[in-house]
Design goal:
The chain has three helices and seven strands; from the N terminus they run βαββαβαβββ. By secondary structure, the protein is α/β, with parallel strands linked by helices. The protein folds into two domains: 53 residues, 2,3-Dihydroxybiphenyl 1,2-Dioxygenase, domain 1 (Roll); 54 residues, 2,3-Dihydroxybiphenyl 1,2-Dioxygenase, domain 1 (Roll). The strands form two sheets. A four-stranded mixed beta sheet has the order 4-7-6-5, covered by helices on one side. A three-stranded mixed beta sheet has the order 1-3-2. A hairpin with a 4-residue loop joins strand 2 and strand 3. It is globular and about 40 Å long.
Length: 143
């Protein structure tokens, strides 16, 4: 298996509400397939939104109401100020701030928001994780 993730699918209770949130965050919904799903082409991966019950059925697992997520998605920024800007945009788009931006123990700045479906996102600036011109992040060179 190669080291990559191709697509991240988030199970949602309300597909249009979730799609409207991500549209408000500035993501552009793929127009080619819209029936019962929302796709967003990101840099090198695709983000999908799919009804929770349908996701469970497709995977062949029992549907259960969502619990607190043990997964956090992350959006790394190019500078510290952008952390606050993205968190503010999430709030204006209908999300909730889980943890306001603050100086992180590892030296950068980070905060967390929940999207309209309760998915946890970290927004962080880490000067040692470079982001290239296409938005791809890299781990620092070994020390």
């Amino acid at each position: 298996m190669e080291q990559r993730i191709s697509l991240i699918t988030l199970g949602v209770d309300d597909l249009e509400r979730a799609a409207n949130f991500y549209n408000s965050m500035g993501l552009k919904r793929y127009e080619g397939i819209k029936e019962g799903v929302a796709f967003y082409q990101l840099n090198g991966i695709v983000l999908g939104l799919y009804p929770r019950e349908e996701l469970a059925k497709d995977a062949g697992v029992e549907f259960a109401p969502p619990q607190t997520s043990a997964v956090a998605l992350a959006y790394n920024t190019r500078n510290e100020n952008e952390v606050d800007q993205v968190l503010e945009l999430a709030l204006k788009s209908g999300g909730k701030i889980a943890k306001p931006a603050r100086k992180a123990f590892w030296g950068g700045r980070s905060g967390y928001f929940l999207d309209t479906e309760g998915h946890l996102w970290e927004v962080a600036y880490n000067s040692t994780f470079p982001i290239d011109s296409e938005g791809n992040i890299s781990l620092p060179n070994e020390v």
